[in-house]
Amino acid sequence: MISRSEYCVVACAEAWRDNGEVLASPMGLIPSIGARLARRTFSPDLLLTDGEAMLVGLDGTVEGWLPYRRHLTMVTGGRRHVMMGASQIDRHGNQNISCIGDWARPARQLLGVRGAPVNTLNNPVSYWIPRHSRRVFVEKVDMVSGVGHDRAAGARFHRIPRVVSDLGVFDFATPDRSMRLASVHPGVTVEQVREATGFALVVDDDVPYTREPSAAELRLIREVIDPDGLRDREVGP
């Protein structure tokens, strides 16, 4: 039986399909497993980093040096594809990881804006949200950290390929670049997704299920990349 977490891993991996030789920067467990799965299968040219100063292979072997100057060059030239988290995200893909409430007197302080504006304006950024709810998928973010489609005019490398949650996969393949339900994970209904979303999603007449991992992909996930089953701690069965 394929678990919900395994559907999420494959959905995250698909974000890097056909990316070529770009730096994959997954933030979080499920995206990290997805990036490694993508490199082992349909995106063998992906570059992985140890998060500090080295490019590494699938087993952690050092493949190259990645000094900060070179890293910034990749970031500002569209040669990096990040998968970030989001405390809030809206219909146009604006993301908030800074605060909840008025920024001058927030009800809750979060990570801060950090590198989100530079990331989103200069290279592709996808999002992973392990708990889909109206608190996260909101009509309007309290503060813009990551830049959405409605604020990115003139940004050469701005692109949000996909948003993955524990309920489904979302994209912005609509005339006004608002969020569309691209697929639901098996066991999830379209109505459940609508109910858990704080704005009106674009929903086509026929919404497919997220694709199943192949037998080879399942073996890699279960036996090679995540044999301890850590993925199920982030997304329950």
TrEMBL record:
Protein family: Belongs to the 3-oxoacid CoA-transferase subunit B family.
- Which superkingdom is the protein from? Bacteria
Q: Which InterPro entries match?
A: CoA_trans_fam_I, NagB/RpiA_transferase-like
The molecule here is called CoA-transferase
Supply the source organism's classification. Bacteria, Bacillati, Actinomycetota, Actinomycetes, Kitasatosporales
What organism is the protein native to?
Streptomyces formicae
